[in-house]
Amino acid sequence: MGFWKTWFSTPESVSATKTTGFEDHTAAAGDPNANSDRIVFSTERDIDLYELEELCDAVGWSRRPLRKVKKAIEHSFLVASMWQVRGNQRRLIGFARATSDHAFNATIWDVVVHPDFQGKGLGKALMKYVLKKLRSEEISNVTLFADPHVVDFYRGMGFMSDPEGIKGMFWYPH
Amino acid sequence: MGFWKTWFSTPESVSATKTTGFEDHTAAAGDPNANSDRIVFSTERDIDLYELEELCDAVGWSRRPLRKVKKAIEHSFLVASMWQVRGNQRRLIGFARATSDHAFNATIWDVVVHPDFQGKGLGKALMKYVLKKLRSEEISNVTLFADPHVVDFYRGMGFMSDPEGIKGMFWYPH
User: Cβ separation of B107 and A107 shorter than 8 Å?
Assistant: First the structure.
């Protein structure tokens, strides 16, 4: 059980749980089983691709070839996942990853929180975890491309759109 | 001289020179030595960091620690350089690099063309070279962050700003 071992033994997941206090947070959401629930973060890359696909399905994303998803995870600088832990069960409820040059820039992709867990501040907690990890690697320029309905969410986290007129631009193959 | 060996023997640099026909292009710019000049592209990463710094100085960029520049080049998915070749001399006149997850996304950074070589279509040639290399790797989503004065340049190359309201956003450490 290498996955669990790494997961629970990494200082970051422990400290993230401690510092964000999700046990209380989840309890406040009114779940009768909340007392036994914990929300845990991990940078472990050994994620079950089918479980990740299920999470992405839940928010209505188009399916992508798992072979490419696997490759993208392998070549991301940071892979962050958020889990609901109840007893010895765990469920993937959030995900984000970032590409980077390991020096100056990081770009965050594929931020997703399961609909059952939205509206509880967990998206913000996941992003804080991502930013904390990127800062710890001395990345000074963090970027992302936000869909219109989440621009205000990211603005609330300190992201700026078009700072000094800089425009995010896209090119797709013809 | 591993650098030169790789440089001249890579199929991409040869084909890029052939297909873009820069010898004629440069000749049209009125340089009396144009007949002996060639513009060559390379994906070789073994770039002299001082030469790159000189190029970036020429366009007025803030200096960055060479240690970090080295790391960023090592961890970029693609490093593209543009060279003026005259006899057995070569001069770095353009540069660009891209981060990527090797599967879906690539983000282009640090696009620079030496001022002496601007206004000759070489920036466009460099970007075409970059896009060709990214396409050959099956990257389907190419992004960049454009300063206001180059937004139209990238638009002319098929880049779209804020497609469907998607906003490029930035976060900097406080």
Answer: yes
- Give the nearest chain B residue to A163 (CA atoms): B170
A49 touches chain B (CB under 8 A): no
Residue indicated by tokens 């963090």: A142
Q: Is A107 on the interface with B (CB under 8 A)?
A: yes
Looking at A30-44, A114-128, B59-73, which range is the least confident one?
Answer: A30-44
Chain B, residues 11-40, CB within 8 A of chain A, namely none
pLDDT at A64 over 60: yes
User: What CA–CA distances, in Å, run from A85 to A23, A28, A96?
Assistant: 10, 16, 18
Identify the pLDDT of residue A173. Answer: 81
Chain B CB within 8 Å of residue A163 CB: yes
User: Number of CB pairs < 8 Å for A and B?
Assistant: 173
What DSSP string describes A110-130?
Answer: EEEE-GGGTTSSHHHHHHHHH
Q: Of all residues in chain A, what percent carry a pLDDT higher than 90?
A: 76
Each domain of chain A, given as residue ranges in start order, spans 2-159
Which one is the CATH code of A2-159: 3.30.310.80, 3.40.1280.10, 3.20.20.70, 3.40.630.30? 3.40.630.30
Cβ neighbours for A127, distance < 8 A, ≥ 6 positions apart: A96, A108, A111, A154, A157
Give me the active site residues of A, please.
154
| Residues in B touching A161 (Cβ below 8 Å) | 167-169
Per CATH, the architecture of B2-145 is what? 3-Layer(aba) Sandwich (3.40)
Asked if A169's CB is within 8 angstroms of B159's CB, the reply is yes
Given an 8 Å threshold on Cβ–Cβ distance, is B165 in contact with A147? yes
In tens, the pLDDT along B39-93 reads 999 999 999 999 999 999 999 999 999 999 999 999 999 999 999 999 999 999 9
**Can B154 be counted among the known catalytic residues?**
yes
Asked if residue B104 lies in contact with residue A72, where contact means CB atoms within 8 angstroms, the answer is: yes
The C-alpha atoms of residue A167 and residue B1 are separated, in whole angstroms, by 41
Which pLDDT does position B25 carry in this prediction?
38
